[in-house]
Amino acid sequence: MRAGNRLLRDRDFGGAIAKYTESIAKHPSLVEAYLGRSSAYIEMGDTEKAFSDCNRVIELDDRNHSAYLNRGSVHRINQEHEQSVADFSQCIKLQPDCAEARFNRGYVLMELDRYDGALEDLSNVILLNPSDAHAHYYRARIYYKNNRFNEVAVDLSNAIDLGLKSAVTYKFRAHANSQTGEFEKALSDYKSALQHAPDDAEALNGLAWFLATCPIPHLRDGARAVEAATRSCELYKYAEWFCVGTLAAAFAETNRFDEAINWAAKSLQLAPDEEKQACSERLKLYESNQPYRIPH
Asked: 229 Cβ partners below 8 Å, 6+ apart?
């Protein structure tokens, strides 16, 4: 058992499985060996064998919360969401302070668009473990769905401070800061995102849109907006309505309205139905030689 546990900690999953299997051969009712082996199988992606081991643990000890945690993870990997929620819930019933089960259930509920339950679970994870950066990040995603942009920015700041420094977190916070009127912070975040991933098409598009449409004059930079929007369009192969729409806004900011009209018409053509009215309104602005500004 100890050798299996050591190998599992060292991420030698094949070696761990061999040692746990030896322990099981000697002690067929050894719960800890089945549980450890199920964890190794999960890490190796062998969900069928992991599921079998979890079931064996539950046969031997139906109050073993870790067995439900692992089986819930198997269901989550297999996209069996309702079974996953049921097992994580049973784990929490047996061990209410199991932050891992609450995190996993919250994540699955979020995938199921059951945001109230997901928010409750992730908030409880943060109460149990305030240094869980991923819990802050995923709670921010739920707040974003509810247009609670101040809370989004706070949770993302916590996630970043706790180590989730990436283009994803910075561009996400940039958008939240822009929504709350924290334009200086938004610009800084877009720049940080691109420091982490210079060719991140979404971050380039976000920066370009900001530089072209920000309502604060000294923060706009039309030439840089055109540069960033053009690179974003290249990465998207000029196939997305929003990136060519951003390019149109950037050209409008530099008073190149013929080019703005051309790309705005392309954006309108590509846009989904729910975006066509807004695209049409921006096109009319450019036809009147007026740039677009973010409402403030």
From this structure: 204, 205, 208, 209, 212, 243, 246, 247, 249, 250
Top CATH class of 199-296 equals mainly alpha
Residue 112, SS3 per DSSP = coil
Q: What is the pLDDT of residue 192?
A: 98
Determine the pLDDT at residue 226: 98
Domain boundaries, the chain: 199-296
Sign of CA dihedral 104, 107, 111, 117: positive
190 close to 210: Cβ distance less than 8 angstroms: yes
Using only C-alpha atoms, what is the Rg of the chain?
Answer: 25
Question: How far is Cα 130 from Cα 128, in angstroms, rounded to an integer?
Answer: 6
- Cα–Cα distance measured from residue 84 to residue 47, given in angstroms and rounded to the nearest whole number: 13
| pLDDT higher than threshold 90 for residue 187 | yes
The model's pTM: 0.91
Give the distance, in angstroms, between the CA of residue 114 and the centroid of all CA atoms in the same chain: 16
pLDDT of residue 203: 98
